[in-house]
Design a protein that fits this description.
GO terms for molecular function: pyridoxal phosphate binding; transaminase activity. The chain is built from 18 helices and 15 strands. It has 464 residues and is of the alpha/beta class. The chain has 2 domains: 144 residues, Aspartate Aminotransferase, domain 1, CATH 3.90.1150.10; 271 residues, Type I PLP-dependent aspartate aminotransferase-like (Major domain) (Aspartate Aminotransferase, domain 2, 3-Layer(aba) Sandwich), CATH 3.40.640. The chain binds pyridoxal-5'-phosphate (PLP). The site of pyridoxal-5'-phosphate has 16 residues, from helix 6.
């Protein structure tokens, strides 16, 4: 890779960054003390920092760079569209070709009855749209009391006030007056951490039936929808036991509530199908999309809406929208991204070739003495760190202490792997090759070895 040298020395960049740039989900003072890693370029699955070091990005940025970095076609699509029509809105009875073309393509790719797209600039915005859309749907259906949306603890649905409230992150709720009223949470299907003495199958049913109990407690006439990620991403790549989803689908059907599948991570090939709902056989009324929709090359999100819901919403004026809803440049890039995913057979490869290869290698990490569980669907995976596998024990230290130590070792070994508490997670670009998968696993193993040594040195190898 060619090194970019036309920037200030790293230390100066870090000082300016800490002085003027407020970072999301960071402790700014800690960042100022340590200095952020400055990323200057990328190609394929590899990032390059300001010191010229190459890093394997096993997170695809934030779960989004599905086709990998450095795709010339996407840059071209953006430049072409900027010259043609850089911006126009889709309010007030106007439209443009990129929004039309992308909507038609998404309707083709999405499961049968999902044929209508409402655009947003991000996943958070799209979930804000969904919150208003499901409530409006029931009001228009003559059932205005159906307003509550049920979600799950440890879900992630975005960071705006609406979507952050839909999410179940207690650390987020603790700041800024969330959750807003009208949102209820049930427990997540995380068997490793919360399953106790139950079998995964029993536990999956128990967690699904919490939805039924919650609806009955609130009254079916007061519940608009259930929202969930097919596989929880930011919560730590939590894969529900096999019994969970069929039961949830039964309950949504019988109780007459809408189901919103948040496909922001699971969509666009991540699970080996176009959508996680196809992999897990879910029947959503609305799917939230963002991230892999444009492989992160442009900020764009949206809601793919069923015929049933779109017809009702379409009969009235929906007083909602964003300046950048259906932004032409973002739509043009997304459309080109979908072409690449399709024509290069990337989704099929994840399902039939590189996905199964990654699964085998990733599950091999279970042989490491610190790894108690390895879960992977397509190209999103997680391992649980534990001092005692048989007991599925937590570490005695605060959740995340050990995970952070391992993450730091990964960083030092030029591998980006995230930690969520004491789970380590991956979500690499879908174009990752088998030899790059081998490198990923080698670096992960080495980081686990070094992390375990550091944990023992620090006297933290104790179950809590
Ligand atoms: C990232 C994410 C969001 C929020 O998307 P933004 O583009 O960051 O607003 C919503 N839902 C899920 C499942 C996500 O992973």
């Amino acid at each position: 890779m060619q090194q970019i040298t036309n920037h200030l020395p790293t230390a100066e960049l870090q000082a300016l960054d800490a002085a003027h740039h407020m970072h999301p989900f960071s402790t700014q003072s800690e960042l100022a003390a340590k200095g952020a890693r400055v990323i200057t370029g990328a190609s394929g699955v590899t990032l390059r920092d300001s010191e010229g070091v190459e890093i394997l990005d096993a997170m695809a940025g934030l779960w989004c760079v599905n086709v990998g970095y450095g795709r010339e076609e996407l840059a071209e699509a953006a430049a072409r569209q900027m010259r043609e029509l850089p911006y126009y809105n889709t309010f007030f009875m106007t439209t443009h070709v990129p929004a039309i073309a992308l909507s038609a393509r998404l309707a083709e790719l999405a499961p049968g009855h999902l044929n209508h797209v409402f655009y947003a600039g991000s996943g958070s915005e799209a979930n804000d749209t969904n919150l208003r859309m499901v409530r409006t749907y029931w009001a228009e259906m003559g059932k205005p009391s159906k307003q509550i949306v049920i979600s799950r603890w440890n879900a992630y649905h975005g960071s705006s006030v609406g979507s952050g409230s839909l999410g179940g992150m207690k650390g987020m709720h603790a700041q800024g007056g969330m959750p807003i009223p009208g949102i209820e949470h049930i427990d997540q299907p995380n068997w490793w951490a919360e399953g106790g003495d139950m079998s995964p199958e029993e536990f999956g049913l128990e967690r699904a039936r919490q939805l039924e109990k919650k609806i009955d407690e609130l009254g079916e006439d007061n519940v608009a929808a259930f929202i969930a990620e097919p596989v929880q991403g930011a919560g730590g790549v939590i894969v529900a036991p096999d019994t969970y989803w069929p039961e949830v689908m039964r309950i949504c059907r019988e109780r007459d509530i809408l189901f919103i599948a948040d496909e922001v991570i699971c969509g666009f090939g991540r699970t080996g199908q176009w959508f996680g709902s196809q992999t897990l056989d879910l029947a959503p009324d609305i799917m939230t999309i963002a991230k892999g929709l444009s492989s992160g090359y442009q900020p764009i999100g949206g809601s793919i809406v069923s015929d049933k819901v779109a017809e009702v919403i379409g009969a009235t004026e929906f007083n909602h929208g964003y300046t950048y809803s259906g932004h032409p440049v973002a739509c043009a890039v997304a459309l080109e991204n979908l072409r690449i995913l399709d024509e290069e057979g990337i989704v099929t490869r994840v399902r039939e070739d590189t996905g199964p290869y990654l699964k085998e290698k990733f599950e091999g990490l279970m042989d490491h003495p610190m790894v108690g569980e390895a879960k992977i669907v397509g190209m999103m995976g997680s391992i649980a760190l534990t001092p005692d596998k048989a007991a599925r024990a937590r570490f005695a230290s605060d959740a995340g202490t050990v995970g952070y130590m391992v993450r730091e070792r990964c960083f030092a070994n030029n591998l980006i792997m995230r930690h969520v508490g004491d789970r380590m997670i991956i979500s690499p670009p879908l174009v990752i090759s088998k030899s790059e998968i081998d490198t990923l696993i080698e670096r992960a193993w080495q980081s686990l070895d070094e992390g375990m040594a550091a944990v023992k040195d620090a006297g933290l190898w104790t179950a809590g």
